[in-house]
Design goal:
With about 375 residues, the chain is an alpha+beta fold. It has ten helices and 19 strands. α8 packs across α9. The protein is elongated and about 85 Å long.
Length: about 375
């Protein structure tokens, strides 16, 4: 161990924090993870419904809310580079037909296991049950003060404390207010009454003041309070109260094809949609159309509208928007522009991406970037 070996404190033992500690240690630093809970990686174990959708192929900067800021990190740590990193740890991965990357074992514990094994090999310390209350500087070093009154000193600090953390503000940074995203949406329920628990593939468009601002195809899950499903979670990143969601429940059909189909079924009356949709969806469409007038039926099928009223399930939101303002950090190293030796990664920064592996990719990639930078700068 060299006399001038840097000590790097990583605050938070989640996906990004573990990668930051590994990168710092591989670059020659002495790394310590301070984790508030009783063990590291607890949130990681829950990702992807326990399967850990760790990346997406491909990943673009435009998949995130601050594309110009994330560009440098993603250029170094694209999907191939990140999967190579995990392969070097011994993790085998598979990519499904929609580009989502998972461990071959189909369990998140495999990802956590290889990360912890590498930390152990490198001598990274895990200090759990350590709640950081404040951080400051003394004689050119960072001083960490914990809830139990103890202090620790280090040369570099990496904030990997996740969404909702105010530690960056403690260090003098501006915080963008936190809000839950990638969550189901609460909507008006009259048009979708009786559909809770049903799923349907649809083209989903978000309308604001009559203008389309986002469209995506995917599976929609109807809930008693509104809408869910991956396509809705993605849309939640942009939705505001008062926006309108339009559902086209037959997106593969052009208008004339659909008109001819429905016209040929008009004599079926209340059974018009039998064989096309689930019975309850057919009933809801007939109710929305107010009968069997052809134009009204076409509108109900291709433009079923509900108004957004807010987040439907904030407690189970996959990501928190907000955090340290990105303009106060160097996008190449993720070091603070205000406080030398302070780095911020993952959801502790005001960065969020789409559903499908993008947010975990950012956590891993930003951790690897900051860890290496902290050891070398």
């Amino acid at each position: 161990m060299g006399k001038n070996r840097k000590t790097v404190a990583v605050i938070g033992g989640g996906a990004g924090g573990l990668c930051a500690a590994i990168a710092a240690a591989e670059a020659g630093a002495s790394a310590v993870i301070y984790e508030q809970s009783s063990r590291v990686g607890r949130k990681l174990l829950k990702t992807g419904n326990g399967r850990c959708n760790l990346s997406h192929d491909p990943v673009y900067r435009t998949d995130y809310n601050h594309p110009d800021f994330v560009g440098a990190v993603l250029e170094r740590w694209d999907n191939a580079a990140l999967l190579d990193f995990f392969a070097s740890l011994g993790l085998l991965t598979v990519t499904d037909g929609e580009g989502r990357c998972y461990p071959l074992s189909d369990t998140a514990s495999s990802v956590l296991d290889v990360l912890r094994l590498r930390c152990a090999e490198l001598g990274v310390e895990e200090r759990c049950g350590r709640e950081l209350r404040s951080l400051g500087q003394r004689r050119g070093r960072w001083v960490l003060r914990f809830a139990d009154g103890e202090e620790a000193e280090c040369d570099r600090v990496i904030l990997a404390s996740g969404g909702g953390s105010t530690l960056a503000k403690e260090a003098g940074h501006r915080l963008v207010p936190f809000s839950p995203i990638l969550c189901p949406l609460r909507t008006e329920t009259a048009p979708i009454r009786g559909l809770s628990g049903l799923r349907a593939r649809a083209a989903v468009t978000l309308l604001r003041s009559g203008e389309a601002i986002y469209t995506e195809r995917g599976e929609v899950l109807f809930r008693d309070y509104g809408l869910s499903g991956i396509v809705i979670l993605n849309l939640s990143r942009l939705a505001r109260t008062g926006d309108v969601i339009s559902l086209n429940l037959m997106p593969g059909w052009d208008a004339e094809q659909l008109r001819a189909l429905l016209a040929a079924r008009m004599d079926r009356g209340s059974e018009l949609f039998t064989g096309i949709f689930h019975r309850r969806i057919g009933e809801a469409l007939l109710r929305q159309a107010g009968g069997t007038e052809l134009s009204a039926l076409l509108s109900a099928v291709t433009d079923l509208r509900v108004k957004v009223e807010g987040c439907g399930d904030a407690a189970n939101a996959q990501v928190t928007r907000g955090g340290a303002a990105v303009e106060e950090f160097d996008p190449l190293t993720l070091q603070s522009r205000l406080r030398e030796g302070l780095y911020c990664i993952g959801e502790a920064l005001d960065i969020d991406g789409k559903c499908g592996g993008y947010n975990l990719h950012w956590a891993f990639a930003s951790g690897l970037t900051a860890g290496r930078s902290a050891a070398n700068d």
